[in-house]
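Predict the 3D structure for this chain.
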Amino acid sequence: MSRLGIGYDAHPLVEGRALVLGGVHVLHDYGLEGHSDGDALTHALIDALLGAAALGDIGSHLPASEAAEGASSIAKPERTASLVRAAGWRAGNVAATIVAQHPRLAQHIVAMRTAISAALQLPLDDVSVKATTEDGLGFTGRGDGIAAMAVASLEPIT
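Done. Predicted structure below.
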């Protein structure tokens, strides 16, 4: 028996912050506002993993009050994977899509997959990251923010 979880996160783009997605610094004039480094991709993955294990959401285990502004979010999947293992599960694979009009992210996808793979202790082939635009539609299409959606599968630890 396996389980699936879905995660979603979105943050506005603001001046004066570095843009970090999937633990990777992306050169851009704006960064994501939010707790820690605002890494919407990592936050969506965490919610997908927690959801699959029926452990609540990111705020239940990694509250915003504990997040130092600018702190790296890539360590949070490691903590999440430990919680999931303690509940008797291990990640099978994860897949995510980043929705951003700008910047173009294709050149950063392998680095994001590598960082997530290391954080979750998953083979690189079990980590999928894609990026898309919304062709000018909505807050992401206007360039006001970036969103990420993720799915995670869990398998019982035997």
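DSSP finds five helices and seven strands in the chain.
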